[in-house]
Amino acid sequence: MKFEIQFRPANTAVKINFNDNESITTEAGCMIAKSSNISVETTTYKKGKGSFLKSIKRIFAGENFFLNHWQSSGEGELWISPGLSGDIVVHELKGEKIIVQSESFLASEEGIEMDTGWQGLKSLFAGEGLFWLKMEGSGTVLLNAFGEIYH
């Protein structure tokens, strides 16, 4: 799978080039276009199964209730973009964990586990949300933010 970031920094989109039998999970509603040989399955958590509790937790963290799981049968393309204008960064996890601001998840490969966590009341008074996202595992994560991302 190859990721090409386009139209930076204000209206960023990602062109994902699939090889045969590759898959990726995205937030619901981010697809711009796709090849006809890429199928989608919508669940509340993992491909092939749902988790109502994890979906409810994601809603409190500002994420979508549903996740889309895209699967290629042959080479193809999927174009995705966040709902709000901003930038996208591709980040590789190698068996590690990162904490991400809520509403920043755009997509991840199968080896990534996503969960929510409580930041505490002090984050509310600091102007942050009450929840954050924990991304853990091995694979690629696509994150987005309003405005340009410097890395």
Count of individual helical segments: 2
Number of strands: 11
Structural class: mainly beta
How do the helices and strands follow one another from N- to C-terminus?
Answer: EEEEEHEEEEEHE
Distance between the termini: 22 Å
Mass-distribution shape: globular
Instruction: Tell me the Rg in angstroms.
Output: 15 Å
Mean pLDDT: 83
Q: Into which percentage range does the β-strand content fall?
A: over 45%
List its salient traits.
single chain; 151 residues; mainly beta; seven-stranded antiparallel sheet; four-stranded antiparallel sheet; 2 helices; 9% helix
Question: How is this structure best described in words?
Answer:
- This protein is mainly beta and 151 residues long.
- The chain has helices at 52-60, 121-125; strands at 2-6, 13-18, 23-27, 31-34, 38-43, 67-72, 76-80, 87-101, 105-108, 112-118, 131-145.
- A hairpin with a 6-residue loop joins strand 1 (2-6) and strand 2 (13-18).
- The longest helix is centred in the middle third of the chain and has 9 residues, at 52-60.
- The chain is globular and about 40 Å long.
- It starts with a strand and ends in a 6-residue tail after the last strand.
What's the helix and strand layout?
Elements: E1 2-6, E2 13-18, E3 23-27, E4 31-34, E5 38-43, H1 52-60, E6 67-72, E7 76-80, E8 87-101, E9 105-108, E10 112-118, H2 121-125, E11 131-145
Antiparallel strand pairs: 1-2, 2-7, 3-6, 3-9, 4-7, 5-6, 8-11, 9-11, 10-11
